[in-house]
Every structure is written in structure tokens, then in C-alpha cells.
Amino acid sequence: MKKRVFITSIVVSILFVFTFLLAASWGSYSISFGDVIKTFFGQGSLLQRTTIWDIRLPRICVAIVVGVCLSTAGCVLQSVTRNELAEPGMIGINAGAAVAVVLLISYGSTSYYDTIGDVALFVMPIAAIIGALLSGFLIYFLSYKKGVSPTRLILTGIGVNVGINAFISLYQLNMSKGDYNQVLTWTSGSLWGSSWKFFWLVTPLAVVFLLLIMWKAKILDVMDLGDEIATGLGVKVERERRKLFFYAIVLAALATSVAGNIAFLGLLGPHIAKRLVGPVHRRQIPVAAGISSVIIILADSISRNAFSPIEVPAGIMIAIVGVPYFIYLMLRE
Amino acid sequence: MEAIEVKGLDVAYEHKYIIKNMNLEIPKGKITMIIGSNGCGKSTLLKSIARILTPRKGEIKLNGISIKEQAPREIAKKMAVLPQSPIVPSGLLVKELVSYGRFPYQSALGGLKQEDIDKVNWAMEVTGIADFADRAVDSLSGGQRQRAWIAMALAQETEILVLDEPTTYLDMAHQFEILLLLQKLNREQNRTIVMVLHELNNATKFADNIVGVKDGNVVFKGKPLDVITKENLYTLYGIDAKLQVDETNQYPICVDFDVRR
């Protein structure tokens, strides 16, 4: 197992570096790998520096944060609900963020990112975070009945998800075309507005909650064995479940706030990691984070370039890869 | 002193009382088997002792101290609990599962110390699963898997072991093997073992102390030879049992029975 973990870490790291360079070099203005590396070390032409430092790098960095957050939230939710298919998109957390954004777009101004100031720029992510937190609390509250059972938590989540999505559709039907497209891009999950500002908005909080989750990695491990065993081993199951659920919501909210509703990422990374290095969280979480980052950077690069000048939301690219894998998982179980 | 003491215990699901005013002492260093018909409250009793259910009333003491007054981790160092058919995360290796038994002794970020590794290896050795250490738990057979769980409970290094039907889904030979293992742990290391068991003849053979539970109350308790009588079995299960004593005169055997109508 040690050898396997070692090999996996190396392979994932190499893939990560490769996709990172690919994303930095591939675009409507191509830059060779050599020039990308030169630019990182302060050389390169002004055009290269601007393209990489101001346009591509912030987008890649936001993608990484989003990948890491969604993947970790997925790992946590799968253990907390003890359901292999749990992920932030499925149990209504992303939908909560989406509904907040939809309401904001339909009632707010019609101005778009580049013409508005910093305050307005941050309104959308903050609305998304609040929306996600609210739906998270709603799910927990609705499934609470002298404690929260994992099954009830996930079923309530799925119910809330369907309800919120119906509500979103209702609003979308009454929207102007511009608003509708903006909402659609957002709910499909896209990194189109990424800038350093977004990166700095979500990263500090994301790091705090990622550390908190790593701190609880052993508790997640024993919670996988069921409430009874975990209790027997001295875990205050109810309290820990509440905390971990909250941490997962925050991470999902942060990711959704800048990238919209990226489905399947919280499922793909954790499952591939589990296959590779097993279900022990102190190994699974980092490997899953690495894999998810690779997937999202790659998906975003393809969605930026494959149908250029039209940009396909990265979430759709991931779903195209995700759905077959999802079905494969179902067939295997 | 008693290992576990239950006083005036009331346990209920919603409005239905499963256990009403139960008193019970479980002696130290002995094997205690709890028997009774389905739904009599024996598993509920075990779950209350294991802190999975919160009693409505009454007190449960562990080594003379109420479990409410002890930190969960401290209790986990004194008492290990193995529920009925626990969940195995797919892909988890045997040695990893067993090492989870060291959870109460570990800090949040620290790895396994040498002492932990020694205990884990010892637990796998005693239960005879050391050869499977690097195999996934979900690839093992029922008997091997049950031994892996017992190894995890052993790695927890507690003087009390609580098990809920540890032999379910196992064939006769494997049932016997598990009970023999538990007996060995009791005899050689003086561990207190409490378990719920369905097979009466296994219970009488391996128990030092048998507790009969009916409708949430203790109807008899004591040595198998003293308490496994025709009358008691009728009270407990409503059966007419034909009893014999084994060749060594140590435990009763139920050779046949009929349901009284």
C-alpha cells in the first residue's frame, strides 16, 4: 500500500504539473511550454507576461481552489452521509447557491462583470455563499429528528435539491434572454469571470476549512464504520457529523460562489482516489484534491478552446466525462 | 466490584418502552451471555450500555462510575463495542481496520506510534488474521471478517468487550471458533465479555453467567447449570425444552423442544 500511495502521488503530481503548463500555454494566443516556464521566472515578452499573469494564471488558480474544495466536500459528505453518491451538487447545496444568484440576477442590475466595481463584483459570490449555507441549514434542520440519520440527511438533501431546481426553472422562464444566458452559464458551472480578486476572496477561508477537515480525518475514518462503532471508539457522532457537514457546506459554497454549479467533480475525484489509495481519509482527501484539480483544469482548457470563440461551461465538459463514469460506477456496484 | 452495573434503567423508542426499570450487574472477568426471544430488549440493553441509545431514566455504571460522568474517549479505553453486522468501507485493509481500534489513544494528527503498531499486530496475531493483514476486509469470508472486527475491538485494549450476536451468519464450525477465541481472551487475559447470543447451546456452553431477558426485564441470571431449567426456558421462549447435562457435568444442553400451544 505504501508503494501504491507513493506511485499514485508521483503520477498525480506529474499530471498536475502537465495540465498546469498546458492550461497556461493553450489558448487563442499560444505560448510554448518553454516560454511559459520562462515567463514564470520573470522573463518573456510583455504580451506573454500579461496573458499568463493576468488572464490564464488567475483562472487556473481559481480552478484549483474550486477543484480542491468540491472534491474535499465530496469526500466529507460521502463519509458523513455514508453514501457513495453524495456530493454537494446532489444534495441541494449548489442549488441553494444557484437560487441566490438567480434571484440576484433577476432582481439586480443587468450590468456584467467588467463594467462594475469591486463591491458589485463580490455581491454574486457572497450571495452564492449565503444561499448555499441557507440550503445546507435547511437540509440539516429538516432531517433533524432527535439526531440526524445519514439516510434521512441525504434523502432530505435530494428533496430540497429538486425543490430548489424547480423554483429556479420557474424564475428562468420569466427572464430576459441576457439574464437567462447568464444564469444558464452560471448554473452549468463556468470559470469565465475568474480573476485574482475571486481567488483572494475564496482562498483564505477555503484553506481554513480544509485544515479543519484534515484535522478531523481520523474521525471521518471511524465514522465510515457506522455510528455504533464510532460511538464505541469515543466519537461524539452527532456533534462531529454536524461540524463536518457544516465544513463541507462552506467548502461547496466557496467553490460554487466563483465557479457556479459544477456537477460531478465532488464525486469523480473522491471515487478515483478511493480506488487508487483506499478509503483512509488522510490519503484519500489529498489525492482526490489533486485528481479533481487536474480534471477541472483540463476541462476548463478544453471548454475554452475546443469550440473557440464560443466557450462551453467547464461544468458541462466535466459532466460529459462524469456521466459515463457515474454509470460505470453504478454498473460495478 | 462489578464491571457494569445497570440501575433502574428505562429505555424507550418514541413512546414505546422497551426496557422498564431494569437492574443488572455484570461481573468482572467473566463471560456473560444475554439471551431472550426476538424483541425482548436484549440488543436495546446492549446499545444503552454502549451509549448508542440514551436511556430515559436510570443509571449505567462502568467500574463503579456512571457513564455520563466519563469522557467518551475514556470510556472507549475501558469498553469496546462490536455491533451486529457492522459496515465495512470498500477497499479498507484488514490492518487499517484493526488500527482504527487505536483511535481513542491517538491525537488528531499523529500517526501510529510503535506501541500502537505492536498492539495492532498482537490483535491480528491472536485472532489469527495476521496473514490477511494486507487484504481488503470486504474480500474476506464471513468468519475471517468477524475475526477482523474482533481484532479491532482487541486493539482498543479494553478490559470489557461488548458484542451483539458475534456469530450471526456464521456456520457451526465458525461460530464455535469465534466463541473459543473469546473464551481464550477471557481465560488468558481476564477480560470481561458481555454478549447477546441466539444459540442457546452455545450460550450454556461458553457462559459463566447467563442473563435471561423478557419484555425488557431480567427474568433470571446465574450459572447456566442453575438457571437453564425447563421452567425458565418456558418463561423466556414459551417452549417445552428437553434438557440434558453434558458428559462432564458442566453445562446443560437443550436436546429437543416443542412450542407449547
Key features of this structure:
heterodimer, A: 333 residues, mainly alpha, ABC transporter involved in vitamin B12 uptake, BtuC, 14 helices, 77% helix, globular, B: 261 residues, alpha/beta, Rossmann fold, 2 domains, six-stranded mixed β-sheet, four-stranded antiparallel β-sheet, 9 helices, 12 strands, membrane (chain A), transport (chain A), transmembrane transporter activity (chain A), transmembrane helix (chain A), Iron complex transport system permease protein (chain A)
How do the helices and strands line up, and which of them pair or pack?
The complex is a heterodimer of chains A (333) and B (261).
Chain A: H1 2-25, H2 33-40, H3 46-80, H4 93-107, H5 118-142, H6 150-173, H7 177-188, H8 196-215, H9 217-223, H10 227-232, H11 237-259, H12 265-277, H13 281-305, H14 314-332
Chain B: E1 2-13, E2 16-27, E3 31-35, H1 42-49, E4 57-62, E5 65-66, H2 72-76, E6 79-82, H3 94-100, H4 114-126, H5 142-155, E7 160-164, H6 172-189, E8 192-196, H7 200-206, E9 209-214, E10 217-222, H8 224-227, H9 230-237, E11 239-245, E12 252-259
Parallel strand pairs in B: 3-8, 3-9, 6-7, 7-8
Antiparallel strand pairs in B: 1-2, 1-4, 4-5, 9-10, 11-12
InterPro entries (chain A): ABC_BtuC-like, ABC_transptr_permease_BtuC
Main location (chain A): membrane
Keywords (chain A): Cell membrane, Membrane, Transmembrane, Transmembrane helix, Transport
